[in-house]
Amino acid sequence: VGLNNIPSLLSLCFYYLTGIGSPTCVNQTQANGSIILVPQSTQPLFSTQIFFEILLFLMFLSLLSFVGLNNIPSVAQLKFLRKKNDKIPAHPGSTENNYLQADYPPSSPSDKITPLRYALLLLAQALVAFFSHGVLPSLQSYSCLPYGSKAYHYTANLTNIMTTLACFLAYFSLVKRIRIIAILSSIAGVMVMYSIVTALQSPHPLLVGSVMGSVLIVANWVLCAGLISYIKLCLAAIFRAQEGKGLFWYGAVNQLGSASGALVIFLLINYTTLFSSVKEC
Questions:
Q1: Stated pTM of the model
Q2: What is the per-residue pLDDT across 232-262, written as a single tens digit (0 to 9) for each?
Q3: CA distances from 39 to 23, 157, 259 (A)
Q4: What is the CA radius of gyration of the chain?
Q5: Minimum mean pLDDT range among 47-56, 138-147, 237-246
Q6: What CA–CA distance (Å, rounded) separates 150 from 24?
Q7: How confident is the prediction for the chain on average, in pLDDT?
Q8: pLDDT 10s digits, 190-226
Q9: Of 55, 61, 146, 172, which has the fewest beta carbons less than 10 angstroms from its beta carbon?
Q10: Rounded CA gap, 108 and 236, in Å?
């Protein structure tokens, strides 16, 4: 998951290099002589064609890496050795047994969870995916834009950075205690509710027009994104330690939750009047 966020982080860096900032409001005279304010975007340092060519180059590097991992002799030999060792019967005290245990360490009895907790963790992952992949991305503009284009700009960019940092943090320190994950999930739930409430109150949410409101909304979105990413990795580590198709069911409920959240928020935004967007000028 951490490596999966690196491309978005690189894209973000190139986006900053374009020099595109927030649009400014300028006067425009109408045919009847009236003057109105219209948004005007700043000119980028290089064209969008160059930006997409850079992204194409990154995708080409990813393709080369994929082809290399499947065709490099040393990698292919390592895959062959793993398959061969997997078929060797392990005998107590033999060197093969020690070798196999080094490659495939058995799950600790403490890693096993009851069927009830297994189901509850799957439900937790489905809810995390429901909000993080389905609901929140569509509500970010409704929640942040009332506080200004800069608040939205910082939120959209810093969340990508925080997500990547959270994934690298999980690489060094990963929590597998369900109680701690439940506490972290509760904190993330409060942040999610704050984001939803501000989106519902758009274009006049809490503390709008104040510096405190802008700082609070940016901090809430950024910390929420990092915390959710960390929770997802912790849940993935727990399911990975289970016997059977733990990661399969983890991925299945992740996709189901994401699709359900996207469908629900699509219907709410397009077929109800719950959310109102703010005008730029």
A1: 0.74
A2: 999 999 998 887 788 899 999 999 999 999 9
A3: 6, 21, 34
A4: 24
A5: 47-56
A6: 11
A7: 81
A8: 999 999 999 999 999 999 989 999 999 999 999 999 9
A9: 172
A10: 16
The single-letter code of the amino acid at 112 is: K
- Tokens 């409060």 locate to 190
Amino acid at 231: I
Pull the structure tokens for residue 137: 């991305």
